[in-house]
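USER:
I wish I could look at a protein chain and see how it folds. I am handing you a single protein, as its sequence and its fold in token form. As I understand it, each token names a local backbone shape. I hope you can help me see how the letters and the tokens relate. The protein I mean follows directly.
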Amino acid sequence: MSNNIQFSLVIPCFNEAGNLTALVERCRVLLASRPNVEVVLVENGSTDDSQAKLYELLESECNDRLRSVKVDVNQGYGHGILFGLQKCKGAVMGWTHADLQADPVDFVNAIPFFASLDTKSNVFVKGERYGRSFLDRLFSRGMTIVEWLILGVKMTEINAQPTVFSRSFYETWQSPPNDFSLDLYVYRQALYEKLKIIRFPVYFGLRLIGEGHNDAFVSKLRYSWKTIQFSLSLRLHLRGLKD
């Protein structure tokens, strides 16, 4: 069965024990719709009982297309994704979030963009969220302007999911960040490599349980500041490559 895998979806899970039952069910729906897809759930060094919950949910799983891998100590959102990507089998890979604000089944809608084009390696597909609050949209638009001023390229809805790309593009990454800047880094790399950027609409709902890293206003400010700092360092790095 695993020899037929063409598409791989990574989902990093950090302290998501309350959401895992619903998440695994949605992953099963995704897999039922496509026999050539796998899902890799990354237990990303959680401090709650996520590991035990994942084991319980997947213990009787006979389908090797839905599996989990474990990071012993959390080293960041980006690290969890990168760890999962290393375990993927597909020629096309991607990630989404575990909180179900974005449905893992949305990954299915990204697949045709690769299958219909002659060269899969030239495509970068990303969701574009709707259904968000005014404040969330305001922050996103503000970051679009900030990133354009810093990096000189227009990037909208930077953190929208899923994010999907070819393995050959993934293999070009050099020292990608281990934190939430990974979305920015990969989007910027896709533009730098002149990939065909394709966006499609995805509904962005509320978390089922718990609070996300970026839900509170202060958290949004903190996250935005960290992103700006990474963008400035990335600009310096890119300038160094030109010198």
About this structure: The chain has one domain: 2-242. The two ends are 49 Å apart (CA to CA).
